[in-house]
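Holo prediction. Input below; ligand is magnesium ion.
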Amino acid sequence: MNDMSMTIQIKNLTKVYSGDGVVTTALQDVNLTMRSEEFTAIVGPSGSGKSTLLQLIGTLDVPTTGMVYYDDVDVSKLKGKALADFRFDSIGFIFQQFNLLPTLTALENVMSPLFPRKVRYDKKGRAQELLDWVGLTHKQDSLPSQLSGGEQQRVAIARALVNRPAWLLADEPTGNLDTNNGENVFQLLRKYQQEHGTGIIFVTHDEHLASQTDKRIEMRDGCVLADMVR
Ligand SMILES: Nc1ncnc2c1ncn2[C@@H]1O[C@H](COP(=O)(O)OP(=O)(O)OP(=O)(O)O)[C@@H](O)[C@H]1O
Ligand SMILES: [Mg+2]
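Structure of the complex:
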């Protein structure tokens, strides 16, 4: 268990997309603080900027203006290998579309982020530990096409957590699941946060799930409409 509180701070974050002559302001002067001990939900209508925000937090894209800090690290200062290393240690991502590699088994999918990396632990052992934790040891040799949606998402969760990142960013991870599987995935993430102190930021359209989190951020038209800690 990691007792250390970690923080993500977002300062004056703006993202403007300008392709094909169309200019869209997806985020406008967003200021937020997320703490690792608060399970954070981000809600808001389609097009309100939730995925854009998560991508900027996750360093998958760069802001037009503004800053993202992980504790005292300004991620805009990280480039190349330093950025890749930071991502590997600090950020796990899961998506609505599970994005598993179709030709790899469940176990290989979980191990895949480790393939190009030097780590101090046994890669296969770690991957098996995570697969076991999500309850899928018996499916470790199955291909994604042989798994249900709920199972595929649990493999994706194990993959995102395989290097024990400081933060897990989840973009509508229950969006393609039925209520029951969605609730299971949500409870799994909750439990992981409590056991490991991992910060979790969870984008969802599901008000029932959002109501069970510690912090709720509501987006509207690229702005933060409400930011509430329970
Ligand atoms: N790569 C892109 N190029 C141009 N515009 C984009 C791009 N990505 C997103 N947008 C626009 O930015 C705005 C915010 O999109 P975003 O995907 O962040 O919304 P969202 O809240 O995640 O919506 P949803 O609930 O449908 O997933 C939208 O108007 C969208 O059309
Ligand atoms: Mg989205």
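The pocket of adenosine-5'-triphosphate (ligand 1) is lined by residues 17, 19, 24, 26, 44, 46-52 (CB under 6 Å). That is the main takeaway for now.
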